[in-house]
Design brief:
Largest interface: A-B, 20 and 19 residues
Distance between the termini of chain B: 32 Å
Number of helices of chain B: 0
Radius of gyration of chain A: 13 Å
Shape of chain B: globular
Number of strands of chain B: 11
Order of helices and strands of chain A: EEEEEEEEEEE
Strand content of chain A: over 45%
Oligomer: heterodimer
Helix content of chain B: under 10%
Helix content of chain A: under 10%
Structural class of chain A: mainly beta
Number of helices of chain A: 0
Number of strands of chain A: 11
Order of helices and strands of chain B: EEEEEEEEEEE
Largest sheet of chain B: 7 strands, mixed
Strand content of chain B: over 45%
Chain lengths: 109, 113
């Protein structure tokens, strides 16, 4: 079966750095996405990786290792507004997104 | 309209009733999707449409139907609602190319009693 695993909840301190991991087992791989979802709102796109390596976008970076079925999202200089759920999703061989359950990130002052 | 809109925002429905959730996008995206999101579970794909006139089944299609008569609209119908269909429903669209991101509507919170 297809499976996306990510931690249920993480806590970090304002101004610090946090890494959210995602491991996947899917039928085929056509890219990995990270989305941010604030409580009661819709998911919004953060990053896309299809090749191995690190993609940097401001305070957020995303890393992919296809051989290990592994990705992480790195958030630097954490701000209170970063409190949200972070969703990992993999596009499978049918070009459909398989979603993880999300990691709820709590930022403390 | 800017992006994707969904209606209604929320709805309480008696079991056995028929309900249509509406979704409209103005980005001229080819592909559209319906997901449900339940606590502790990832987004699950109900139905999708890669282009106007075509639809496909996702992971959890039973009890739901869709149509795609034109590019902009992608309604989701529950023919006879059951309590297990209580969920938050998100419509999304993408332009259908390789690394394309999906844009989500604000969601519909549906409660079936």
């Amino acid at each position: 079966g297809q499976n996306i695993d990510q931690p249920t909840e993480m806590t970090a301190t304002e101004g610090a750095i946090v890494q959210i991991n995602c491991t996947y087992q899917t039928s085929g791989f056509n890219g990995l996405f990270w989305y941010q979802q604030h409580a009661g709102e819709a998911p919004t796109f953060l990053s896309y990786n299809v090749l191995d390596g690190l993609e940097e976008k401001g305070r957020f970076s995303s890393f992919l290792s296809r051989s290990k079925g592994y990705s992480y999202l790195l958030l630097k200089e954490l701000q209170m507004k970063d409190s949200a759920s972070y969703l990992c999703a993999v596009r499978d061989s049918n070009y459909q997104l398989i979603w993880g359950a999300g990691t709820k990130l709590i930022i403390k002052p | 309209i800017a992006g994707i809109t969904q209606a209604p925002t929320s709805q309480i429905l008696a079991a056995g009733r028929r309900m249509t959730l509406r979704c409209t996008q103005d980005m001229r995206h080819n592909a559209m999707y319906w997901y449900r999101q339940d606590l502790g579970l990832g987004l699950r794909l109900i139905h999708y449409s890669n282009t106007a006139g075509t639809t496909g089944k996702g992971e959890v299609p039973d009890g739901y139907s869709v149509s795609r008569a034109n590019t902009d609209d992608f309604p989701l119908t529950l023919a006879s609602a059951v309590p297990s269909q209580t969920s938050v429903y998100f419509c999304a669209s993408s332009d259908g190319t390789g690394g394309d991101e999906q844009f989500f509507g604000p969601g519909t919170r549906l409660t079936v009693l």
